[in-house]
Design a protein that fits this description.
heterodimer, A: four-stranded antiparallel β-sheet, B: 114 residues, mainly beta, six-stranded mixed β-sheet, 0% helix, 54% strand
Chain lengths: 114, 114
């Protein structure tokens, strides 16, 4: 399979717990993006990596959120001390290392915080 | 920062009817424009894109979109819809220069009745 994969697909957690999501981009893609989508809204940008470097973070990404992309391959998004407002679909996308390359999206991880 | 407006969030059509979804963006510089589609239970997929050249772009499944720079618009059209076009449609924009992070509209939920 050459698409973007995400794991887990669904996560239910209690408020205050930490969660970590994983994204495996298309293998030759250098750029990796995280977005968050809540009900009735389009995806909102969270953060962007080019290879292993995190080059931009949205103001949506509070101190409780951290993302990494070790070795420029897969990426993880961790949320510490989850809150009910963190409930959303977390989407990962990847693209080639040139401007104008389209982004390919994974299936997302749906987080529910109870 | 870029922003995108989509109107008529819920659209119900009969098969063979024509579809037009409006998209307006707010950004002073050169942009790349996209329409993404999300079929029920599936992940976001690119429907079509505009980078430069002919402002009338054709995508998959008979969809087309027209970029009108003076109106900051990128409306999506299909002359005759099918039941399988039932999906959520998102307009998105990136700045021509930059990290290519997508700014999405809120989406249009389209239901095609057989």
């Amino acid at each position: 399979d050459t698409g973007v994969s995400q794991d887990p697909r669904h996560k239910i957690t209690k408020r205050g717990q930490n969660v970590t999501f994983r994204c495996d981009p298309i293998s030759e893609h250098n750029r990796l993006y995280w977005y968050r989508q809540t009900l009735g809204q389009g995806p909102e940008f969270l953060t962007y990596f080019q290879n292993e470097a995190q080059l931009e973070k949205s103001r949506l990404l509070s101190d409780r959120f951290s993302a990494e992309r070790p070795k420029g391959s897969f990426s993880t998004l961790e949320i510490q001390r989850t809150e009910q407002g963190d409930s959303a679909m977390y989407l990962c996308a990847s693209s080639g290392d040139r401007e104008n390359y389209e982004q390919y999206f994974g299936p997302g991880t749906r987080l529910t915080v109870t | 920062a870029q922003s995108v407006s989509q109107h008529n969030h819920h659209v119900i059509l009969s098969e063979a009817a024509s579809l037009e979804l409006g998209c307006n963006y707010s950004y002073g510089g050169t942009v790349n424009l996209f329409w993404y589609v999300q079929y029920p239970g599936q992940h976001l997929q690119l429907l079509l894109k505009y980078f430069s050249g002919d402002p009338l772009v054709k995508g998959i499944k008979g969809f087309e979109a027209e970029f009108i720079k003076s109106k900051f618009s990128f409306n999506l059209r299909k002359p005759s819809v099918q039941w399988s076009d039932t999906a959520e449609y998102f307009c998105a924009v990136t700045a021509y220069y930059g990290n290519n992070r997508l700014a999405f509209g809120k989406g249009n939920q389209v239901v095609v009745i057989p």
